[in-house]
Every structure is written in C-alpha cells, then in structure tokens.
C-alpha cells in the first residue's frame, strides 16, 4: 500500500497517499484494524481512515482486512487480487449455489464474507439496478462531503484532489454484481436440470417396477382409453391423462416429490390427501406423459423405442386456455431452453427442441403435425390420441 504511484500517459501519476497517511494506513492494517492497537503518532489519521470505511462496515463486511485493503488498492490504481484461499472459497461458494452452509467447513468463514459482499451490492430486484447505482454513489458522496478534510492525496504537481476517486470502488462492485448474477443464475439453472434429470431416472426405475408386476404395461388407470378428454386434470381418472402417471406415486413406486420438477414452483411434493388419484390442477403437473390409447399403447422395454414422459408441454397449457400455441416451443420448466425426455427403454435424454430427429413433434399427434401450416384448423381439443405405437405424443 505504500508509495502507490503509477505513471500515466500524460506524465502525471495516479493518486497516492501522503507519507503520513500511508504510515497510518499501514499501522492500521498491521493492527488488524483495531484502533486501540495503533501507535499514538498514527492514531488520529487512522481514526479518519476507519471513519472513511464506515459505508463498507454498514454493508456487513467489516472485519475483513484483506477485503478492505484490496478495495483501497483498487482506488489507488493498484491491481487487487484474491489470495489462493479466497479464490478457492469463492469457487466453492458458487458451486454451492451461493449457500455458505454447503461449503466445506475449512472455507466456510471466507465464503460467508463473499456472501456478505455480494449481499451488499446485489440485494435488489433485477429492475432496480439504476436505483442501486444512485443509492451507492449517493452514499459514497455523503462520506466524501463529511470527510473532505480527513485525507489528502498528492500528485506530482502538488495539486490536491478530492477522495471522489473512491467512487470507482462502487463502480467495481456494481460491475462485479453484473458478472456475479448471471453466474449464480447459470448455477441455479444447471442445478435444476440435474435435479430434473434425476427425477426422470427415478421415474424410469419406478416404471420398471410397475412393468414387472403388470406384464410390461405402462402405468395406466382409465384415462383416454376410450378416446375421451384427457387434459382435465383433477376431474377424475377417466378425464385426465396425468392420473395415469400419478399411479406411480399413488401405488408407492416413488414419492410425489420425484414427479415435481424444480422448474415448476407450483408442483406439490407431498399428496394433499392419501386418497388422491391425480394432481389437483394442470399447473401442478410437472411432466407430460404419453397419451394412453388403449390397445395401441406401447409397453415398457418394447422393441419399438418410443417416448413415454417429458417435461410438461407448453402447447397443452396454452391450448387448454384457448390461446394460440407454438408447436415448437420448449417446456417452461427450464426457461424454454429444452426438455428432458424418458423413453420406454429406460433412457433419459436432453433435447433442445420438442421435434425429435425423425421429425416427430412430441407435443402433437402425427395427424395434427400434418396441418401445422394451418394450425387454426388443427387446434388441440384434448381428445386426440397418438396415430400409432411409434407416434410420440405426451400430455397434458
């Protein structure tokens, strides 16, 4: 921190602490930011430095000497960097989705300080970034005005400058927030996808158990067996195809939480009643299941490989409400980025598009796919069936 001067292109130097202030800052750092441990000759200047750092204390990150030192280093034009331990703690914190309690004990204290710093600059709605900038700079300016006489910087030409350069620290923190939020969002999305894939693996095991006791049949009650309406969730097993999938939870082949995608905030993880035979509403359903079509229904581990389950259909959700649909839209479970698919051979796959490599759209029966160019005449009604055992068609 001493003699922090960097030559600029015009021959001037970056701001530097005076010798007395630099000595006071060094003494404060050496004392672990304990004013009582600072020598009397430096005490007055050290007190002004501590007062200048009050905004950082208020943010909940006081006590982190290295963090404060790096902040001041940036304001003085130096190149701050994380030590190896802090860098490792940051990586562990991000991998734990921002939850320090999931970080190994040896790095938890450092992870807590990373979270405190992130909370200090990121605790706002995404649409409130401009207000955050204004509040942060206003806080810095108020400190500058209050302590205008407390510290002086020197330049080569002996001109005094205001400590307003510290505002660059706020800019650095805000830029860091803009970088950190997408990283954390990506980590959360990846965690949801991993959990969702695990759900489908669990469903595959449950279907194998069901099939072994039911002549390789897929889970089924009575929905759509005779071609009736199949998207009326919660209206009885003869009117809801989702009741077929719910059979796995009702008969204890797996828990209801294993049929709740983390990308669906409305999905229940425990039955509302032990007597339930279906989800209560369409919004609660996380996964669309092959529309059951009586004798044409394929079996588990058939020679013909067909789709039996996928992340919930966005087409059915909109068609039920009478809204215009996009047949090539991906599930809302994962922000429209793609969907997990489960086939009757037990394999699970991630597909960015609902259209399979053979051209089969999983949200529509093949007969309706043929009239996509005039979709108004091919509107889903909730009574459609697959065109055959090899036709991928899931709902609701």
What keyword list fits this structure?
single chain, 396 residues, 40% helix, elongated, disordered N terminus
Structural description of this entry:
The protein has 396 residues and is α+β, with helices and mostly antiparallel strands. The chain folds into two domains: 16-186, no CATH class; 218-395, no CATH class. 40% of the residues lie in helices and 6% in strands. It has helices at residues 19-30, 40-52, 54-61, 65-75, 84-95, 105-122, 129-146, 167-213, 242-250, 314-320, 366-369; strands at residues 16-17, 153-154, 287-290, 307-311, 339-343, 348-351, 394-395. The strands form two sheets. Strands 6-5-4-3-7 form a five-stranded antiparallel sheet, covered by helices on one side. β5 (339-343) and β6 form a beta hairpin. The longest helix has 47 residues, at 167-213. The termini are far apart.
Number of domains: 2
Mean pLDDT: 76
Task: Report Rg.
Answer: 31 Å
Total strand segments:
7
Low-confidence stretches: 1-15, 59-63, 74-80, 152-161, 373-377
Helical/strand content category: alpha+beta
Multimerization status: single chain
Distance between the termini: 64 Å
Overall shape: it is: elongated
How are the strands of the biggest sheet laid out side by side?
6-5-4-3-7
Order of helices and strands: EHHHHHHHEHHEEHEEHE
What portion of residues is helical? 40-55%
Largest sheet: number of strands, sense, barrel closure? 5 strands, antiparallel
Secondary-structure blueprint of this entry?
Blueprint: E1 16-17, H1 19-30, H2 40-52, H3 54-61, H4 65-75, H5 84-95, H6 105-122, H7 129-146, E2 153-154, H8 167-213, H9 242-250, E3 287-290, E4 307-311, H10 314-320, E5 339-343, E6 348-351, H11 366-369, E7 394-395
Antiparallel strand pairs: 1-2, 3-4, 3-7, 4-5, 5-6
